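Dear H.,

Thanks for agreeing to be a second pair of eyes. The structure we're designing against is below in token form, covering all 546 positions.
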């Protein structure tokens, strides 16, 4: 068996879309040359792994998730040569790169689908899922975008058949049960691994193995392909990783981790939703329950914790009443909500710019067991543009300076791939990298310090974690145990300061504070009287008592 490298367990991940990060050639579209120029910035921030959203050639019906060529770069973003140069420069900065692998579906304009439509004997006909009879329409739970699409089957006149699509009708689903499709997917992974990527984010992983409309294949049969994917990646790059986007109930999570032979990393959707509900309620037990609901995972497995990413803040794991609680507090207007289940806002506006709350949330996220993920612009508290349609509200260009277009591009504003935020309290004139880097008390400098301290606490990524009871309902406490020392993290979700006692304080010996929202006097060794300010947080280095 190939020995695996668990570098990812203490990675600091950062997600971005090349198209909206930095434009080097002045055409209004971000590109790989611009991203390469920003690697010093990302390295200085403390980032060790980049997750790139799709950069393949695409008609862009779904922000690049409708791929029409898996072996190339969107010409607006550069060339394969630019990509290789970027990878080389990232490696020299100690930054790994994982990329989106979008193989649940292709674009309707992909040559495979165009050929498949022409006749039933096409080589590519069985690359997709077809039905010559009209399939049943009453399957709303299978529709990814229920407010946009009303069916998962679309009739194609040229093919004289219906094709399956869980997402937009411009994104026909691939037939994953077809060995030729599986071989194509492995070829795609092999191509990009040879160019230097460290792994892949598997987009829409549950849809990949649903098996809807596929005759003679069970879900268990399709799940075995996840093992084949990991075997392929590890055989080509021993430190390669697979990150699954799998927003599923707790009892379904083991499908994706397997026995350590499938995905190594899963997004922690359950805890993300529990965290926001707990924040709204100012109630630590809600987050406690979310963490308790997680199943045990293999030693090779890890959770990816996040506050926001490129899609909506989904609340689909909450009950209807819980979802309404969060909507009322964080997205009270209908225009702030999407698909009936999520919020299309960035964190800073959701918190009304409250710096103490923002710090609390990121301190909590970076201390939770697993890998932390930051999204571009979170380090400066970027806002959103609710005048834009759908998910694009949180996909505006990076704000680098107070220069025109926020320093993203020197193209005329009307030529930008997305408009920059130019009005209000989150405008690029007020919220940008350059201004904040000059201010020692800015959010970006606080974030850089947070990441630096997090790197000094590998227990959060690799330690055994325990939830701890306190005598205050708003204070969430947990401990991550290392070989020699442990880190104990305390977060006050409430708007009132307090003094708390750990109910298991006799099990730990206080050594020192390592991070906090303010300077706190050292504690006595018993951990029986711990001050916390409103929305306060403290990371403590402790010794477990045996």
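And this is the sequence the design step returned. I haven't edited it by hand at all.
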């Amino acid at each position: 068996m190939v020995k695996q490298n668990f570098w990812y367990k203490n990675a600091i991940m950062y997600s971005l879309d090349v198209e909206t990060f930095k434009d080097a050639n002045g055409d209004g579209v971000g590109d790989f040359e611009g991203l390469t120029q920003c690697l010093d910035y990302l390295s200085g921030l403390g980032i060790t792994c980049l997750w790139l959203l799709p950069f393949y050639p695409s008609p862009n019906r779904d922000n690049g998730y409708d791929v029409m060529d898996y072996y190339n770069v969107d010409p607006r973003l550069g060339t394969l040569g630019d990509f290789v140069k970027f990878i080389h420069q990232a490696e020299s900065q100690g930054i790994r790169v994982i990329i989106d692998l979008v193989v649940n579906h292709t674009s309707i304009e992909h040559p495979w689908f165009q050929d498949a439509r022409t006749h039933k004997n096409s080589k590519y006909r069985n690359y997709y899922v077809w039905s010559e009879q009209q399939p049943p329409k009453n399957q709303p739970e299978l529709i990814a975008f229920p407010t946009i699409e009303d069916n998962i089957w679309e009739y194609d006149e040229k093919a004289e058949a219906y094709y399956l699509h869980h997402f937009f009708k411009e994104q026909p689903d691939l037939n994953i049960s077809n060995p030729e499709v599986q071989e194509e997917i492995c070829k795609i992974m092999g191509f990009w691994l040879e160019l230097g990527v460290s792994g892949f984010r598997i987009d829409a992983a549950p849809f990949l193995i649903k098996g809807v409309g596929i005759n003679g294949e069970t879900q268990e049969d399709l799940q075995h392909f996840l093992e084949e994917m990991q075997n392929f990646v590890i055989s080509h790059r021993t430190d390669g990783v697979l990150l699954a986007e799998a927003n599923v109930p707790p009892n379904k999570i083991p499908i994706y981790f397997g026995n350590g032979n499938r995905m190594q990393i899963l997004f922690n959707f359950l805890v993300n939703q529990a965290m926001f509900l707990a924040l709204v309620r100012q109630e630590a037990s809600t987050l406690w329950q979310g963490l308790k609901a997680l199943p045990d995972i293999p030693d090779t497995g890890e959770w990816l914790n996040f506050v926001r990413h490129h899609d909506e803040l989904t609340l689909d794991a909450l009950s209807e009443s819980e979802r309404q609680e969060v909507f009322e507090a964080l997205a009270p207007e209908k225009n702030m909500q999407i698909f009936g289940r999520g919020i299309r806002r960035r964190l800073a506006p959701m918190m009304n710019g409250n710096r103490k709350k923002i710090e609390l949330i990121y301190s909590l996220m970076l201390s939770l067991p697993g890998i932390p993920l930051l999204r571009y612009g979170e380090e400066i508290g970027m806002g959103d543009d609710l005048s834009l349609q759908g998910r694009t509200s949180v996909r505006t260009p990076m704000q680098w300076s107070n220069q025109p277009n926020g320093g993203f591009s020197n193209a005329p504003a009307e030529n930008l791939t997305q408009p920059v935020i130019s009005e209000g309290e989150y405008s690029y004139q007020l919220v940008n990298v350059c201004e904040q880097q000059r201010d020692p008390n800015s959010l970006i400098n606080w974030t850089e310090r947070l990441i630096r301290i997090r790197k000094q606490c590998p227990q959060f990524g690799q330690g055994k974690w325990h939830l701890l009871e306190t005598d205050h309902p708003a204070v969430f406490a947990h401990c991550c145990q290392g070989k020699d020392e442990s880190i104990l993290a305390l977060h006050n979700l409430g708007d009132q300061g307090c003094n708390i006692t750990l109910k298991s304080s006799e099990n730990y010996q206080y050594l020192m504070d390592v991070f906090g929202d303010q300077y706190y006097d050292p504690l006595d060794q018993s951990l029986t009287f711990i001050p916390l300010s409103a929305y306060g947080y403290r990371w403590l280095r402790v010794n477990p008592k045996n």
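Two observations from my side: The CA atoms of residues 319 and 360 lie 25 Å apart. The mean pLDDT is 94.

Warmly,
E.
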